[in-house]
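WARN no homologs supplied; continuing
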Amino acid sequence: MKNKNPDHGRRSAVVVSDTVNRIMKDLRANADASFRASEEKLGINISKAYGVPMPALKSIAKRTGVDQGVADELWKTGVHEARILASMVYDPDSITENKVDSLIKEVDSWDLCDIFCGELFSKTVYADKKIEDWTASSEEYVKRAGFVMIAYKALRDSDASNSEFRVLFKRIIDASSDERNYVKKAVSWALREIGKRNITLNGDVIRIAEELQKSDSQSAQWIAKSVISELKSERVQKRLRAQTGHR
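OK structure emitted
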């Protein structure tokens, strides 16, 4: 659970402005040119980035606490790290569905997409609905977000049944031919995380990947290779065999 600021929801515009100004000053003080360069090599959009490592961002977020007003103002700066911080400062229990949809449409980098999914979107009551909506989107980062949300569901939702993931297989298979880099990588991630939940889903996903190998799509073939390589590995198979109480 996020640490909520005791004044959450009641802070004045002046206090919010002062808080955001302090945060932006902290971000500039923690800027690291070499880290920024390493981000660029990873394909991260650094056009509005300072180059602040994640430990510093988490420290600032912890000091700030949950605050919708501060989160909104951080997002509006357009600064990459300020937007990452916003994902940690927004309250998943209070954020509206319209706000969630507006945020994802403005995401302009794969890492920001993944961080928002992990820190915020996947923790809201809209998570399953956003999977349905976003995986059907034609926009690259919105569509990526849908499949990243599936990956997080597989990672975190211990109560989810096998059938909940099986109903997602068709949309995953349909998206496997999407040649856009950030979409296909998210599809692969979603499949791999589902296939690591238990031995039954592992078999299901491997069979899907083996079918994708026969596809004419280079993207589908790439996804199949990455999925089979991980899910058939001795490390994964040994862990799954040791599980008890399979669904």
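The domain at 104-247 is CATH 1.25.40.290 (Serine Threonine Protein Phosphatase 5, Tetratricopeptide repeat).
OK
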